[in-house]
Prior knowledge:
Order of helices and strands: HHHHEEEEEEE
Oligomer: single chain
Shape: elongated
Strand content: 35-45%
Number of helices: 4
Strand order of the largest sheet: 1-2-3-4
Radius of gyration: 22 Å
Helix content: 10-25%
Amino acid sequence: MFLLMAEVLRFREVAKAFPGNRLWEFLGTHQSHVDWLGCHLHDLTQPSFLQDWTRHTAKPVVPVRKGGYDEQFASDPKVFRDGDHWTIFYFGVGKGGAHIMIAFSRDLLHWTAHPEPLYKAGGNPSGHDKQYEHKISLVYNPADDTYYLYYCACGKDGRGIGLITSKPVASGR
Length: 173
């Protein structure tokens, strides 16, 4: 919030009005993008090396699929490297709920979505995710060789954080 307000108040310009003032010099420095030599406050929220984006002009890389578990929308992607390929977890809405979906790529541009959800809405017997599960966070714990997939669960008890776990799948299986 401070950095946003500093933009509005134009700290960089104020610093120029007070040459040699260490406080204004410090604050002014953090309102401009500089070469990435160290850690400037503003660059933590808006790194200078991320300013020149190129929009991918083709269709969405993971489009919605008519009649699929993601027929209404595919949203909230999380991309991970998995050996020799990339994996994207996302949630799809279709067939009566929001489901945790997965797709695969070798080049980050061309994706193949699995037709079935990784986890369907209503999969937990308690009903805590009867309507939706979406917005995942994936963590691997080497101490117990287990993946922990946390997700937003919506069901009979309202909203909460759900959890499913999995052991790694051996190569070639």
